[in-house]
């Protein structure tokens, strides 16, 4: 189904032709407006988010990396503050839970390793994936991002929880520490 067909099914053919400008992401990311179509767009975004969430819960998370990336892009879409989300995985690398643990300002978030360890133990996680966003920048990891990830890896290793990857999301861009070779 094309983007226009999907949008037509949600808000109607004529409305879809008026508001569609080539990207559903742009529509979903648009500031809240007063149009009668906003509720339909919000509902469509939520339905897509739920479908992606179901697809990443079906099996090992690394087997559906595109679905994970799409879900993360959609999760952070339009978010104006930086936050850290943790995906908790079992020993088969299946998703157990996903939580936003820390919320910050436009360009930084304070992360407390103790809280990450507490939540990993609560969910009985064998591994985790870290994700945070850069609302006003690029998806390139900063020096502080690298430092934090290394510190968390050391602390989590003490309780036998591995960090499988750390993603940075910025708009439509997403970068992986593992793919960039930032793993130790």
Write a compact overview of the structure shown:
By secondary structure, the chain is of the alpha+beta class. The chain has helices at 3-11, 13-19, 24-29, 38-57, 65-76, 113-122, 143-157, and strands at 83-89, 95-103, 127-133, 162-170, 173-176.
**Structural class computed from helices and strand pairing:** alpha+beta
Q: What is the fold named in CATH at topology level of the largest domain?
A: Cytidine Deaminase, domain 2
Q: In DSSP terms, counting alpha (H) and pi (I) runs of 4 or more, how many helices? A: 7
Largest sheet: 5 strands, mixed
- What is the radius of gyration computed over CA atoms, rounded to a whole number of angstroms? 18 Å
Q: Any idea what the CATH superfamily of the largest domain is called?
A: Cytidine Deaminase, domain 2
> What is the 3D form?
elongated
Name the helicity range: 40-55%
Enumerate the strands of the largest sheet in spatial order, edge to edge or round the barrel.
Answer: 2-1-3-4-5
Order of helices and strands: HHHHHEEHEHEE
């Amino acid at each position: 189904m094309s983007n226009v067909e999907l949008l037509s099914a949600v808000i109607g053919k004529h409305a879809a032709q008026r508001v569609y400008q080539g990207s559903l992401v742009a529509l979903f990311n648009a500031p809240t407006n007063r149009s009668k179509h906003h509720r339909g767009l919000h509902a469509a975004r939520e339905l897509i988010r739920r479908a992606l969430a179901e697809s990443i819960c079906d099996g090992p998370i690394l087997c559906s990396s595109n679905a994970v990336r799409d879900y993360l892009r959609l999760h952070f879409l339009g978010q104006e503050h930086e936050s850290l989300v943790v995906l908790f995985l079992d020993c088969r690398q299946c998703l157990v839970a996903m939580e936003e643990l820390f919320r910050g300002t436009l360009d930084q978030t304070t992360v407390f390793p103790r809280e990450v360890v507490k939540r990993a133990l609560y969910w009985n996680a064998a591994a985790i994936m870290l994700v945070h966003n850069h609302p006003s920048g690029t998806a390139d990891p900063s020096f502080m991002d690298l430092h934090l990830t290394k510190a968390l890896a050391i602390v989590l290793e003490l309780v036998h929880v591995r960090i499988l990857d750390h993603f940075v999301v910025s708009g439509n861009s997403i970068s992986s520490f593992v793919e960039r070779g930032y793993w130790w």
